[in-house]
Amino acid sequence: MSNCIFCKIAAGEIKSASVYEDEHVYAFKDINPQTPVHLLVIPKKHIASMNEMNAENSALVAKCLEAIPKIAKDLKLDGGYRVIANCGADAGQTVFHLHFHVLAGRPLGEKLV
């Protein structure tokens, strides 16, 4: 989508602090981190939210999830990490391009965030 900020980031039109990239997935540091390590993992192809996941694009979503442990290993997140995907405005989704938050760098406890 031409107006999607994450599409522009994945295409290299907007600068970001990249931590991982392959043919299908792009991961970068969140500009407003909630934990010492706060990454966003996105499919390069636009999918607005989990509500748009279907048989045609589920393999792409799986590629994002498969990238997360690779990233965690590269960044030595040996103590663990949390993965969150917000779906819709009521859940806190502010950018309507499917993305997975990877939070780490301190003990997160049992609460959601």
Descriptive account of the structure:
The protein has 113 residues and is α+β, with helices and mostly antiparallel strands. It has one domain (5-104): 2-Layer Sandwich (HIT family, subunit A), CATH 3.30.428.10. Helices cover 20% and strands 21% of the residues. It contains two helices and five strands. The protein has helices at 5-10, 58-74, and strands at residues 18-21, 25-29, 37-43, 82-84, 100-104. Strand 2 and strand 3 form a beta hairpin. The chain is globular. The mean pLDDT is 95.
A few lines on this structure:
With 113 residues, the protein is of the alpha+beta class.
Number of helices: 2
User: Helix/strand-derived class?
Assistant: alpha+beta
What is the share of helical residues? Answer: 10-25%
What global shape is seen? globular
What's the gyration radius in Å? Answer: 14 Å
**Uncertain residue segments:** none
Classified by CATH, the class is Alpha Beta
Number of domains: 1
Kindly list the characteristics that best describe this protein.
21% strand, 113 residues, HIT family, subunit A, single chain, 5-stranded antiparallel beta sheet, alpha+beta
Give the helices and strands, then pairings.
Blueprint: H1 5-10, E1 18-21, E2 25-29, E3 37-43, H2 58-74, E4 82-84, E5 100-104
